[in-house]
Specification:
three-stranded antiparallel β-sheet; 11 strands; about 15% strand
């Protein structure tokens, strides 16, 4: 025998469902009906939410999600009715993970105000141009597509997207949030936050904020290769890493060969993206290029391939491109990096720290 509460619930569900399907709000696209789960309800037993209210809640959820990937940042969000947008105030510590700094320096904070602007985090002065910018959080596609499957229309769109004219006219990624958290307004300021280190045995410079994540990548890759981080401490020790032992798995041999093949691991470099008016993420010290000693005829970067093969650069198949081992790519992604080899304008040596993309995907 079913409990009486089942019949009460079933009756309530039917009334609500019929009301939503044929009631007074069913033809109005600007309203949504939802059953009440609070003591504050109307006589009809459901609450009314306008589309504007639902959008506000959706945007607040998006803000919480985005900020969750930067847990050291403090933030608050307040809805600005006049501008119909969320004002997000973000506070950061000026120096991150810098134990050598004085207590006074380590306690310094800065706060900046942004508007959500549909996922762009823009200053108020840029709101009128928000449609010129891309959103900060989007679907990170970490699979490779065979160029043979491109249609003629797609090839033309790729050519247009990669053209110098298009890259200069488009504002692209809004850099205001990154300028703030990485102190990247000017070269002298950001260089106070750049630290020198070694990565896979190569000297490099990175932003202090990504230093811990990069070191975790290195440790994980060493673990996968069954070597120690100390084995990367000098060129002599790297040269002695065994890549032929029958005791090694195929994956271990592949990663060891990859490490031994590297020529450089360049990260911080103050410059603009080629063909644009925007700073490269190398200017922030959050992008790193792993360049091998030899390419052996393989392609690695779309711009170099364009110089070699002209407008057919995007047709180079994945197997003809140099790539890090898949296990290395996954180790980077697990720590918040994205790989440029998945981009249409491919950059297979390039990794970039964007936890809001890679970790959201994972």
């Amino acid at each position: 025998m079913l409990p009486k509460y089942f019949f009460l619930f079933f009756t309530f569900f039917c009334v609500t469902f019929i009301s939503n399907c044929g009631g007074k709000n069913s033809t109005n696209p600007d309203t949504f009906t939802a059953p009440s789960d609070t003591a504050s309800y109307k006589n009809e037993d459901y609450l009314l939410f306008t589309s504007a209210e639902l959008r506000e809640e959706k945007e607040l959820t998006e803000i919480k999600n985005f900020m969750s990937f930067y847990p050291d940042l403090e933030y608050s969000a307040e809805y600005d009715a006049e501008l119909a947008d969320w004002k997000v105030s973000i506070t950061k510590k000026v120096f991150f993970n810098r134990q050598e700094k004085s207590e006074a320096e380590k306690s310094l904070t800065r706060t900046a105000d942004f508007y959500w602007a549909g996922g762009r985090l823009l200053p108020k002065s840029e709101l009128s141009k928000k449609d010129d910018y891309w959103v900060l959080q989007y679907h990170y596609e970490n699979t490779l597509r065979d160029p043979k499957t491109y249609t003629p229309e797609e090839i033309e769109r790729i050519k247009d997207f990669a053209s110098s004219k298009n890259r200069r006219k488009n504002n692209g990624t809004p850099m205001f949030f990154f300028d703030f958290i990485y102190s990247a307004k000017s070269r002298p300021v950001i260089e106070e936050h750049i630290v020198k280190t070694k990565f896979f045995g190569k000297i490099t410079k990175v932003h202090e904020r990504i230093f811990p994540a990069l070191k975790r990548v290195e440790a994980e890759v060493c673990l996968l290769a069954a070597i120690s981080v100390e084995d990367l401490s000098s060129p002599e020790r790297i040269s002695k890493i065994d890549v032929t032992s029958e005791k090694l798995s195929a994956g271990q041999k592949e990663i060891r060969k990859f490490i031994k093949s590297l020529r450089s691991a360049d990260a911080y470099y103050w410059r603009e993206i080629a063909g644009t008016n925007r700073k490269s993420f190398h200017s922030y010290g959050i992008a790193i290029d792993l360049l091998p000693q030899r390419l052996n005829g393989r392609s690695i970067y779309w711009g170099w391939e364009k110089e070699r093969s002209g407008d057919k650069w995007m047709m180079v198949p994945p197997e003809a491109r140099w790539s890090p081992p898949e296990a290395v790519i996954k180790a980077f992604e697990a720590q918040g990096f994205i790989w440029g080899g998945y981009w249409i304008i491919f950059d297979n040596m390039h990794f970039e720290y964007h936890p809001e993309l890679s970790k959201a995907k994972n």
